[in-house]
Amino acid sequence: MRKTILLSMLVAGVAVFGGACVKTAPGYTNFSDIQPIIELFTGGPSVNLGYVATQSAPTDYIIEVNLASPDSASKPIPVTLAVDTADFNEMNDSLGDIYTLLPASFYTVESWTVTIAKGQHLASLHVEVNSSLLDSNHQYILPLRITNASGYTISGNFGNGYWQMIAANPYVGLYQSVGYKTDVGVITTINQQKYLYFADPNPALGLGYVGRNTVIGQAGDDVTYIDYGIAMDLTVDPVSDTVTVTSDPNQGARGKIPLFNNGTCVYDPVNKVFTLNYAYVNAYGNTDSIHEVLTWIPLPQ
After folding, report:
1. Average per-residue pLDDT for the chain
2. Scanning 70, 165, 181, 265, which has its CA 20 to 30 A from the CA of 153?
3. What's the pLDDT score for residue 202?
4. Which residue, 1, 11, 5, is CA-closest to 157?
């Protein structure tokens, strides 16, 4: 999960203010003098992989600004961001210019100023990305920096960041999975959330998966996944919307147990729902059959 607000405050705060602002006494350290800091929630020198759903309309990609403090905002805090070409060029030069600055024509931002509301820690910058312009021949980076934090200190470590925009597919996202697994008459209920990840077909950017229309997810229930380490690949035929279920060659345990279709497997593109019937042969030679329906959960804006 994301780093906690308290951890962000400690890491960023100590880096900026140093030991001079930290009161110490025998047996404990007092951080009471550290002031709130404004940061990019996933900022820093590491490049974030931003998988953008492929669709005709622009994709709303969200980058969050964080008030790194144990206390929420006592008043609205406007925070302004900007494209950070200076740090991008320095970083890219050090890596042999492997990245390309995301062209301004590839995205729109309605407002570069976001506001952390009173009582909150986070505010969202909405970047509308035209996924049809992204291609696998370039590694596009959107570099950002906080330029104004309404008088608050801007983090020295997380005040800027890099987001690599990669065309994914429309199947990526968080889903609610409801169904059951049958094993020699024993029925196990499935009712949990699963995230379907993009299976990147570009070896230069990932592990070399094959299939632009493939996503990876946890197979079956927690027992299936934990005991056997099975991750499933769901490959959608964009013409018929039928789905092929197979074991993922890279994720999960080293010894792969093959998954196979065992009934109707389809995707409903209107409601974003997977209906799956698949099976595998377990370690005892019995066939476990699984039925599950995965319904897409919209992320809060």
Report:
1. 82
2. 165
3. 53
4. 11
Residues 187 and 219 in one domain: yes
Structure tokens at 250: 């890279």
What is the pLDDT at residue 17? 36
Exposure pattern of 3-28 as b/e (b: 16+ CB <10 Å)? bebeebbbbbbbebbeeeeeeeeeee
Q: What is the DSSP letter of 242?
A: B
Q: Is a pLDDT exceeding 80 seen at residue 83?
A: yes
Among 285, 246, 278, 240, which Cα is nearest to 262's? 278
Q: Mean pLDDT, to the nearest integer, of 272-299?
A: 91
Which 3-state string (H, E, C) describes 136-178? CCCCEEEEEEEEECCCCEECCCCCEEEEEEEECCCCCEEEEEE
Least Cα distance to 179 among 264, 276, 297, 288 occurs for: 276
Structural domain count of the chain: 2
What was the pLDDT predicted at 77? 97
* Residue 88 falls inside a structural domain: yes
Each residue's pLDDT tens digit, 163-194: 999 877 888 878 999 999 998 889 999 998 88
Domain that holds residue 57: 37-167
